[in-house]
Amino acid sequence: MKRGLRSFLLLLVSFFLVLLVACGDDDVDADPPADTGNGGETAGEDSDDDDESEKEAEVSGDPIKIGILTSQTGILEAYGNQMIKGFEIGLDYATNGTRAVNGRPIELIIRDTQTDPQVAVQQATELYENEEVDILVGAASSGDTLAVLPLAEVYDRIMIVEPAVADAITGSEWNPNIFRTGRNSSQDAVAGAAAIASEGTDIAILAPNYAFGLDGAAAFKEAAEALGANIVLEEFPAPDATDFTASIQRIIDSNPEYLFVIWAGANSPWQALQEMGVKDRGITISTGAPDIAALYTMDDLIGMEGFSVYHYTLPSNPVNDYLVEEHKSRHNGEVPDLFTAGGMASAMAAVEALTKTNGDASADALREAMKGMTFDSPKGPMTFRTEDHQALQTLYAIELQDHPDYDYPLPVLLRELSPEETAPPIRN
């Protein structure tokens, strides 16, 4: 109905325009052309108007709808909100501020999973059915993401996974419409094991009891044992735990040389590890350097060698420079955090893919464009591996140091771990 009415009105307007032009040809005293807003400039001086018309034409196509599905509330809300900020900055960077590709404006629709897989499925279904999104991006929680993955295949839409890390996302639960810009647990494990594992080393693992922690622990165990280490204990407290006493006591009793910690969320175990004197008992703690909020609780770990996915001081490239300055400008001087860079990378991947398809957002077109695609990011070039669409990317070997310009332990670069060096096993 709406299309028919619109077509009729356009036809009617065209008819009257033809009449006006015909009258102008017959009557030499006809009114002059209407003012075009150029202040009386001659025909040769209205190039600015032409440029504006061209810009309007460039973004006059049907919108490309991108749904962002992530935690805006719940225990991972900080990660979700970081990702959203990074995505918005990345979208502007990749499109030179137009938020359009091949004449099609990009429309963002954001939904909160509440860090609850059931809610995530409800929101994803609404984004697909009611909003008719072309691309889905998310989520902060591996549990949320795993629950939503099948919908990308059912509705035949591309899903870009950021920042959930469970191996199963590009492993046992993968489908061809899934592309992940975030790193996975095995990439973390390779980096973490390289920092501490060697022949005969006794290591305990502390990780949360859900997909992120379980997959991470399994991947670390595999990587560490391949280097000859012994895993003497694995502890899996609840993901929303606030009392870690029992788990830490069992770790102390197992008498490892190292404790490798995998954690995400505001309820971190760092304070409990300090209070129970784990380090004083000769157990060296190692982990990935997390978000800035968690770094504030890690004073007792100064001197620790581990790895980092991202800290804004680690990469040295123009994209990261832009992210840092633009984030400060938009967000009251705040610097980007752990998953802001991932959000930017996912936006840049989406724009690169849409550019390659000339704005075709269909799953068929995007799948072919994204297989093996290399795209830029704040961490340098990333590449979607053809076999499982996992983005191969740089990680960082770091040492936590006390730095006079920072009021938290600073991850200081020891060396970059190349995308090839941290490439995880293909598990799909």
Automatic annotation (TrEMBL):
<dbReference type="InterPro" id="IPR028081">
    <property type="entry name" value="Leu-bd"/>
</dbReference>
<feature type="region of interest" description="Disordered">
    <location>
        <begin position="28"/>
        <end position="62"/>
    </location>
</feature>
<dbReference type="InterPro" id="IPR028082">
    <property type="entry name" value="Peripla_BP_I"/>
</dbReference>
<dbReference type="InterPro" id="IPR051010">
    <property type="entry name" value="BCAA_transport"/>
</dbReference>
<feature type="domain" description="Leucine-binding protein">
    <location>
        <begin position="63"/>
        <end position="401"/>
    </location>
</feature>
<protein>
    <submittedName>
        <fullName>Branched-chain amino acid transport system substrate-binding protein</fullName>
    </submittedName>
</protein>
<comment type="similarity">
    <text>Belongs to the leucine-binding protein family.</text>
</comment>
<keyword id="KW-0732">Signal</keyword>
<dbReference type="Pfam" id="PF13458">
    <property type="entry name" value="Peripla_BP_6"/>
</dbReference>
<feature type="compositionally biased region" description="Acidic residues">
    <location>
        <begin position="43"/>
        <end position="55"/>
    </location>
</feature>
<feature type="signal peptide">
    <location>
        <begin position="1"/>
        <end position="24"/>
    </location>
</feature>
